[in-house]
Write a structure and sequence with these properties.
This protein has a 3-stranded antiparallel β-sheet with strand order 2-1-3, covered by helices on one side. With 1034 residues, the chain is mainly alpha-helical. It has 45 helices and 3 strands. The longest helix has 30 residues. The N and C termini lie far apart (112 Å).
Length: 1034
């Protein structure tokens, strides 16, 4: 197909062609069957070489259009059956097409081998094709072949081109460029199928996906995102001109929303907010989180401030508003029905508390309980804002209070789109789970949403008595009690035994939205697949203490790792031997049952040859015993066997399970080596731990936590260059302040760089000593120096980078005084000139945090005073001795301010600090202040400050009295000498003292000598005082 014949408008027209037709109609012509046959051959092929031989890119314009429509139909049909509903009718004919081609494609040996039905074998191959980095998708996804077929069409490069032209002018109408958005959606849904739901606070879909270790797929997503942005927004030089956009405004808004959802899923908070901001600007949408006086409870008498979201959409043109399809079909929102809390906040006279000057102009006249209708895209913007806050903010009540108004604004607006309203109810339920007054409504609302999705996606299920297979050919459990609500007209319950049950009555067809309406914004909303939503419901049940309900859900979903966790938790309350006794053993039994055959199968060749499906076994998992499953490993291994082996390794504390997980995943499952590394760390086997983490980061170079952990190990081993590199990798791969970019990692990087610097200095000193001793200098011994030379870094540069790292860490954790202490040490160590600005900044923050005299470092304070007093004080113009005030912004001014405002109020027992203050004040010609500081230094040294201090029980009592401690006695003599010098130098300049300074000085010396005569008479320092008295008598 010529690129000039394809445009975004054509792709949009293809998407809109499904509005009044079924997605499955695209499979009913002969060309579609040929593409299906090619896809099946690609899936069945055993080697990459066989798949490469199938390359057959098409060129005809009409044929490419049909293929694109077929791929989109396959993807939409898959999403309809797994995410949005309604039931995908008429799929049996499409399934027959796949089965017939699969029967032709596989060999006769494969067809006769095993007892699996063809559809089970085919879907197993499809699932295997989705494995990435040792991680498998959820193994019971209905109609998984539809997704694999769409992925084959758009991303394989066999049917449609995927490589972009090198010249931008050739990409203006490039089919490969304009399909990059579709490829991005394919990769994102692939990532969502890979993501593992779990029973934890991270079971929320957007949170659990962030910890999925599939770096290969993540790189594909980021690449497709860049290509899609090039298609939607154009190159940077043309993006400023709106005439250059080939995509309509609505499409550009939706792309930015999908981009934000993508970044949320990958954990990139900053990029997610940037994309959301671009979507808001494109939409012309204005919203703000404000406050208004109102009542939340029935018995509240006074109005108090309530959070509310004020929002207004850009005015629509008549043609644009006519394009919006309005329908009254929406899911059921359960009422709160609480005896205390109101259903909706009752605002007082529609008064907005926040000053109107702080609100955008278009929002100043909006009343909190009478706001205008919003467009669907703007509803999604509010929900995305709520999800960003929920995903990246701390889980506390304040965060919940800020998030809930965004969801309520959408729900109260009654969106016309089914999926948007569903997502809004889901967001509200997640928040209300944390409140005692609303937790019941939250759980029941989530149960209603799950039932709606199950009813809308599952359809009629074949009875287990007539056929032992579900949609994936696996037997479903039928012994779970169910509740079914039937219309009054249906009195015979037996007629509906094969239909899924629901908590609420099933809506009529006229009360439900069409598939096209539900799928319209499913990508921008990042709606979770059905099994993720059910897992989230299980977590919701655990919040109200119903672990049994969560266990039943996980058993039905066959999430065996989560079943083991539930058993471990629920068994704690039933054990008689103590809390938690036996729970871990039950979890171990479940995991071993999944991984190993029965112990008796070792001597039974027939059992080993039995290829029956593990999921066809009806087993009461709570009665399993780990001792019964020490037979051979199951072959082939179950889905996600690497993860199960890692869990078993954690339970049994056996490193062989981690190594087996690594081998099964073809050395791609990073978690296996990470767990092995942690095992070695517990044993203090540092070298083995480092080797394990090196393998882990080798396959997942985007995990900041593993890089940081590797840096810790290298730091412990003394490999400072490698440690610095690991910490730098951790920081570069981190997202926001999560993962590696935190204060600890920055501080460790500073430590590694500083230690590296010290190693270089030590190596240079050793080489100089060898030269002096006429020994041969071996350059091979200078390992750290050679590594620094490879990176082009000198010792001085390493010291500067270390200081910068510590400063960054101190900025992120400004309450950690140890990091600020490191900043002070490094800044003072810089040569030839210390960084005094950073020293002052560090000392000020250290005092702010500790707020005690113990935080004062005399060496650092002496350095500051010495550097400040180097500058000569300019003489005053009129010849008077006015106090000198350094110019604002100079380092001298910063040092003086630090001492006068921060240090002086802290000094209580340290006489040397007062001596430094006296020296600094004398430099400023503050004679009164200098003499006052010298007197305080003397009194502090002899213990004369305050009535509670004395020569025998003064401030130095912890180190010993100066009457018995030589060091304290030396300090007293030093302070006395400085006081006499202060009287001599400054006394005559002070009007209140004048010529009296000698008398005051003699009095001070006489006082010390009187107390010290019995202890120190005849000492050399006693002679110093005696000479001082003689000088004062002259």
């Amino acid at each position: 197909m010529a690129d000039s014949e394809f445009s975004p408008a054509k792709l949009i027209s293809i998407e809109n062609s499904f509005e009044n037709s079924s997605f499955l109609e695209a499979f009913h012509d002969e060309p579609s069957r040929r593409i299906v046959a090619q896809f099946v051959r690609h899936i069945v092929a055993h080697s990459p070489e066989e798949r490469a031989d199938q390359t057959e890119t098409v060129d005809e314009s009409n044929q490419v259009t049909k293929i694109i429509r077929l791929g989109l139909a396959s993807l939409n049909a898959f999403l309809q059956s797994n995410v949005t509903g309604p039931v995908l009718d008429g799929y049996s004919e499409v399934e027959d097409v796949f089965l017939s081609e699969f029967t032709k494609a596989r060999s006769s040996d494969e067809a006769s081998d095993g007892a699996e039905s063809p559809i089970v074998s085919f879907r197993r191959l499809c699932l295997r094709s989705l494995d990435v980095d040792g991680v498998s998708p959820y193994p019971y996804i209905p109609h998984i072949e539809l997704f694999c077929f769409s992925r084959f069409i758009f991303t394989s490069g066999i049917i449609l081109p995927t490589e972009l032209p090198e010249i931008w002018s050739d990409t203006r109408q490039s089919v490969s460029l304009h399909l990059s958005w579709t490829r991005l959606r394919i990769h994102l849904w692939h990532y969502k199928l890979i993501a593992q739901p779990s029973l934890s606070a991270g079971s929320l879909f957007t949170k659990s996906g962030r910890w999925t270790d599939v770096p290969t797929l993540q790189e594909l997503i980021e690449k497709s995102l860049l290509e899609a942005e090039t298609s939607i927004a154009g190159p940077a030089e043309e993006a400023q001109n709106s005439d250059q956009f080939q995509w309509p405004r609505e499409s550009r808004i939706q792309f930015r929303l999908e981009e934000a959802s993508c970044h949320i899923l990958l954990g990139n908070e900053t990029k997610a907010r940037q994309a959301l901001q671009l979507a808001t600007e494109l939409s012309g949408f204005s919203y703000a989180l404000s406050g208004a006086l109102g009542k939340r409870t029935r018995f509240q008498e006074k109005n108090i401030s309530q959070l509310v979201v004020l929002a207004k959409s850009l005015a629509l043109s008549p043609t644009a508003s006519n394009r919006e399809h309005v329908t009254d079909a929406t899911p059921v929102a359960l009422p709160l029905n609480d005896d205390t809390v109101l259903e909706n906040i009752k605002f007082e006279n529609n008064h907005v508390e926040e000053a109107t000057s702080n609100l955008p102009v278009e929002l100043q006249d909006i009343k909190p309980d009478d706001q205008p209708q919003l467009r669907p895209e703007d509803h999604i913007i509010l929900l995305t804002e709520a999800i960003i806050r929920d995903t990246f903010s701390p889980a506390d009540s304040l965060t919940s209070e800020e998030i809930l108004p965004f969801a309520l604004r959408v729900i109260e607006d009654k969106p016309s789109n089914w999926q948007i309203y569903t997502q809004a109810l889901l967001v509200r339920s997640r928040i209300e789970l944390n409140r005692s007054r609303t937790v019941e409504r939250a759980v029941l609302q989530m149960q209603a949403l799950v039932d709606q999705i199950i009813v809308d996606t599952q359809g009629a299920v074949v009875s287990i008595n007539t056929s032992g297979s579900d949609q994936n050919g696996s037997r479903a459990e039928s012994n779970i009690p169910t509740i079914q609500v039937t219309p009054d007209s249906e009195s015979d319950h037996s007629t509906n035994l094969q239909k899924p049950t629901s908590f609420l009555p099933v809506p009529k067809s006229t009360e439900s939205a069409s598939p096209h309406d539900r799928l319209r914004y499913v990508n921008a909303l990042s709606s979770p697949p059905r099994w993720h939503l059910e897992s989230e419901l299980a977590y919701a049940w655990t919040t109200v203490g119903s672990l049994v309900s969560a266990l039943e859900i996980f058993k039905r979903l066959r999430l065996w790792a989560e079943v083991a966790l539930c058993l471990a938790s629920s068994a704690a309350s039933d054990d008689q031997d103590g809390r938690g006794s036996g729970g871990e053993e039950k979890a171990r039994a479940v995991v071993r049952w999944r991984l190993f055959r029965h112990t008796s199968d070792v001597n039974d060749p027939a059992a080993l040859r039995d290829g029956s499906n593990l999921d066809d076994e009806e087993v009461d998992v709570s009665s399993l015993k780990a001792a019964d499953f020490y037979g051979p490993e199951r072959s082939p291994p179950p889905p996600n066997a690497p993860r199960l082996f890692c869990i078993l390794g954690d339970i049994e504390n056996d490193p062989q399970h981690y190594r087996r997980a690594w081998e099964i995943s073809n050395r791609r499952f990073a978690r296996a080596q990470r767990s092995l590394g942690e095992f070695h760390l517990r044993k203090q086997e540092w070298e083995a731990a480092r080797d394990a983490y090196l393998l882990a980061v080798g396959v997942n170079r985007l995990n900041s936590e593993m890089w940081s952990r590797l840096g810790d190990i290298e730091l412990r081993l003394g490999n400072f260059p490698d440690a610095a590199e690991a910490f730098q990798r951790a920081i570069s791969t981190a997202n926001g302040i999560s993962g590696g970019e935190d204060a600890r990692t920055w501080s460790n990087l500073g430590t590694a760089l500083f230690s590296w610097y010290r190693q270089i200095i030590s190596e240079k000193k050793q080489q100089q000593d060898k030269v002096k001793n006429d020994e041969s200098a071996d350059l091979d011994d200078m390992v750290s120096t050679k590594r620094a030379a490879e990176f082009g870094k000198s010792a001085h540069k390493l010291l500067q980078e270390s200081l910068a790292a510590f400063k960054r860490g101190a900025t992120l954790a400004d309450s950690n005084w140890r990091i600020w202490d490191n900043v002070i040490t490094l800044a003072a160590s810089l040569s030839p000139n210390p960084d005094l600005d950073d020293v002052v900044l560090g000392v000020r923050n250290l005092i702010r945090i500790r707020n005690t005299e113990e935080a004062l470092d005399l060496d650092i304070l002496t350095l500051l005073v010495r550097e400040a007093t180097k500058t000569p004080v300019p003489s005053s113009g009129d010849g008077t001795d006015e106090i000198y005030v350094p110019a604002r912004g100079t380092i001298e001014n910063k040092i003086v301010t630090l001492f006068e405002n921060d240090i002086v109020p802290l000094i209580t027992t340290n006489s040397e600090c007062w001596a430094l203050v006296s020296r600094l004040r004398a430099w400023r010609r503050d004679w009164v202040g200098a003499l006052e500081a010298a007197e305080k230094a003397w009194r502090t040294a002899i213990g004369g400050v305050g009535s509670a201090l004395s020569a025998s029980s003064g401030g130095q009592s912890e180190q010993g009295s100066w009457l018995t401690d030589p060091d304290a006695w030396d300090a007293v003599v030093q302070r006395t000498s400085e006081l006499v010098a202060a009287y001599e130098n400054y006394g005559s300049r002070i009007d209140s003292i004048g010529g009296k300074w000698k008398g005051k000085a003699r009095s001070a010396v006489r006082s010390v000598m009187g107390k010290a005569k019995e202890s120190w008479e005849g000492d050399s320092r006693w002679e110093t005082l005696t000479n001082m008295m003689e000088d004062l008598k002259l």
